[in-house]
Amino acid sequence: MVKRVAASRKQTWSWQLKIELLGVTPSVWRRITVPETIKLPKLHTVFQTALGWTNSHLHEFVIGGVRYADPDPDLADELGHVDQKNVILAKALRLDSRCFDYVYDFGDDWHHIVIVEEQIPDRDVAPSLIHCSGGANRCPPEDVGSTRGYAEFLEAIADPEHEEHDRYLHWVGGHFDPTRFDIDATNLALSKIKI
């Protein structure tokens, strides 16, 4: 009697993404691995956590010309968002896309570019693992006033003689190191996100 070999399960993948905040110096970026089946609301949580944002403002993903977000009834006509609630990243991207945009805080307009660097078979990584494997520098403080406001903020805190030096330091709790990035703390925070 010949034994039948059980059909192997469908191959699943994780994606290595590089997200970079545009227009700031020093450059702020993270390299993150996420499951291909991640939905956009969860990806938003991953980005907020990895970058150090506080999820205090609206956001949108722009993928293949489509703008996905949590629709805001007051801005629905103006922004033309598609509800992100059940959108899976792999389906939104399709096979031919390798990058998309992530915008956070429509006032400060923090624009991030996201590049799909690699697709990794789940046999090579822990399935459903969200992990940060690299990055640099700290994201700007919330409500600092966009890229120009952040540049002015950094100039002021670096110069004790600057008229705004003390006020800005007090505003951020006494200290701000723009070059700080703690990968272990980032991964600890990411490990708490359930897929």
Keyword list:
2 domains; 195 residues; globular; disordered N terminus; 25% helix; Structural Genomics Hypothetical 15.5 Kd Protein In mrcA-pckA Intergenic Region, Chain A; alpha+beta
Tally of separate domains = 2
Q: Report the strand count.
A: 8
For the record, the CATH architecture of the largest domain stands as Roll
The SSE string, one letter per element, is EEHEEHEHEEEHHH
CATH class of the largest domain: Alpha Beta
Number of helices: 6
Rg (CA only): 20 Å
- Helical content (DSSP H or I, runs of 4+): 25-40%
Morphology call: globular
Strand arrangement, largest sheet? 5-4-3-6-7-1-2-8
Overall pLDDT metric: 89
Please name the CATH topology of the largest domain: Structural Genomics Hypothetical 15.5 Kd Protein In mrcA-pckA Intergenic Region, Chain A
The CATH homologous superfamily name of the largest domain equals MM3350-like
The end-to-end span amounts to 43 Å
> Which secondary-structure class do the elements indicate?
alpha+beta
Strand content: 25-35%
Describe this structure in words.
With 195 residues, this protein is of the alpha+beta class. It folds into 2 domains: 13-138 and 179-190, MM3350-like (Structural Genomics Hypothetical 15.5 Kd Protein In mrcA-pckA Intergenic Region, Chain A, Roll), CATH 3.10.290.30; 140-176, no CATH class. It is built from 6 helices and 8 strands; from the N terminus they run ββαββαβαβββααα. The chain has an 8-stranded mixed sheet, covered by helices on one side. A hairpin with a 6-residue loop joins strand 1 and strand 2. It is globular, with a radius of gyration of 20 Å.
